[in-house]
Design brief:
This protein is of the alpha/beta class. The protein is built from 8 helices and 8 strands, in the order αβαββαβαβαββααβα. Strands 1, 2, 3, 4, 5, 6, 7 and 8 form an 8-stranded mixed sheet that branches.
Length: 201
């Protein structure tokens, strides 16, 4: 399947992508998410292109959208800078999986943080050439974060069980905690993407 990124988004995000890839780690914060575009969908035949921040309305937005476009079989994530609601993101990934949809990251597009979790919902998952996949340790926006949680804290099981459910090995979760702190992003190499089984082909 050939996946092309809608042209209006290419120039808009090109400078941001270039900036991110100047370093293996890039900075991200809550304010940048608040200032980013809200979620939007574009449809071309059986493919839906998704861009923007994933928020607490994601499950209902995705449900409504797919009800209006029952022919959609593939979701292409174009530019997803993260999520403001991790539970909604996980529930949406589960919805994608239940509906048997495939997910793709657009060539030269990117998914960061919770965007990666949404991507994992796909039955078949592919990543376009030049796309960025950014991960980091989680934080709830307060003093509670991955580094402050005891290794036996049940919160870890919530994430681990989600990744196992998505067919991704547990080691991906522990790797993400050490790859970058919550206010930075680590971009996975193609070798790491496949070693961690994020893509299915």
């Amino acid at each position: 399947m050939k996946i092309e990124m809608p042209l209006p988004n290419v120039l808009k995000w090109l400078s941001l992508i270039v900036f991110f890839f100047l370093s293996a780690c890039a900075t991200i914060d809550d304010q940048s998410l608040l200032e980013a575009d809200s979620l939007s969908f574009e449809v071309e035949e059986n493919t839906a292109y998704l861009s923007g921040v994933l928020d607490s309305d994601l499950v209902s937005d995705l449900t409504d959208f797919l009800a209006e476009h029952p022919n959609v079989t593939d979701l292409v994530l174009v530019d997803v800078p993260g999520s403001t609601d991790q539970q909604a993101t996980m529930d949406s990934a589960r919805l994608i999986r239940r509906l048997g949809l495939n997910t793709h990251i657009a060539p030269t597009g990117y998914v960061l943080s919770g965007g990666v979790d949404l991507f994992l919902g796909g039955v078949e998952r592919t990543i376009g050439a030049g796309a960025g996949v950014g991960i980091h340790a989680w934080s709830d926006g307060t003093r509670v974060n991955a580094s402050s949680a005891n290794v036996a804290d049940p919160i870890h099981a919530t994430y681990v069980n989600f990744y196992l459910e998505m067919g991704v090995p547990e080691r991906f979760y522990w790797f993400s905690l050490t790859a970058a702190p919550a206010d930075r992003v680590y971009f996975l190499s193609p070798e790491e993407v496949y070693d961690l089984q994020l893509a299915t082909q």
